[in-house]
Specification:
It contains eight helices and ten strands. By secondary structure, it is an alpha/beta fold. The protein has one domain: 3-Layer(aba) Sandwich (Rossmann fold). It has a seven-stranded mixed β-sheet with strand order 4-3-2-5-6-10-9, sandwiched between helices. Strand 2, helix 3 and strand 3 form a beta-alpha-beta unit. The structure holds S-adenosylmethionine (SAM).
Length: 229
């Protein structure tokens, strides 16, 4: 039984979570995986950069869908070490960096940029989208898969249990309009919005999702591009 709660800084928390992050029954990872698979089925990128790439599960999926240049950044050394253990990661570029500084550490452009379940830990969306705009190819896509603001506002947020302590970390609720405003400021415009609910997946749902309302949005997907001239 969980006995107490503790709040840690983001990198310290994910360094601890890294050990069993991929094995954790996480409804958000399930929804984000389904949404990313659909995006990759619509358009297969040759090159991908993921901000806050964690253990590299999204980069591995992009690899499996045919991307040949893969790179990512994360502020947690523990999460990056797990990513580096993947056999396919030998060919990836993994950088320990904050999202806002990552664009200065790698050469773009990339066909697909990902923010997946990391912006809930980021207060300054403008700095994050400015970094993305620097790395995005002219006709590339910036895909955002984040906890849905309605779900986040209900008190949901990233957390895990370690040694009977419930570990939390700083989180921020961002409305769709806030992502859009930060993207527009960076010169990118919205091309797609999907409010993902459990009812939108045809596969058997993990227990943690199945017990929620089928129509309550869990994940917000937004896609951005440079405006065509
Ligand atoms: C919930 S995990 C998601 C990992 C991965 N994107 C995925 O979908 O499996 C969030 C990740 O974002 C990273 N992160 C959070 N804030 C960050 C920041 N400001 N700069 C870089 N990485 C960050 C964390 O260290 C963690 O690995």
């Amino acid at each position: 039984m969980t006995e107490r709660k503790e709040t840690l800084g983001v990198s310290q928390a994910y360094d601890l979570w890294a050990e069993d992050y991929d094995a954790f029954d996480n409804p958000m990872l399930f929804m984000a995986d389904r949404a990313l698979r659909q995006a990759l089925s619509r358009r297969r990128p040759g090159s991908v950069f993921e901000f806050g790439c964690g253990t590299g599960r999204n980069l591995a999926l992009c690899n499996a869908y045919g991307a040949t240049r893969l790179a990512g950044c994360d502020i947690s050394g523990g999460m990056l070490s797990k990513a580096a253990e993947r056999p396919e990661a030998a060919a990836w570029t993994l950088i320990r960096s904050d999202i806002a500084s990552a664009a200065g550490r790698i050469d773009g452009p990339f066909d697909l940029l990902l923010f997946c379940l990391c912006l809930e830990h980021v207060q300054d969306l403008e700095a994050a989208f400015a970094a993305a705009a620097r790395l995005l190819a002219r006709d590339g896509d910036l895909a955002v898969f984040e906890i849905h603001p309605a779900f986040s506002a209900s008190g949901a947020g990233a957390h895990f249990v370690r040694d009977e302590v419930e570990i939390h970390m700083p989180t921020f609720t961002h409305e769709a309009a806030a992502y859009r405003a930060a993207a527009e400021k960076a010169g990118l415009h919205l091309t797609r919005r999907t409010d993902w609910t459990p009812a939108m997946t045809s596969e058997p749902l993990p227990e943690k999702i199945a017990r929620r309302s089928a129509d309550a949005p869990l994940l917000l997907e937004l896609s951005f591009r440079r405006p065509t001239a």
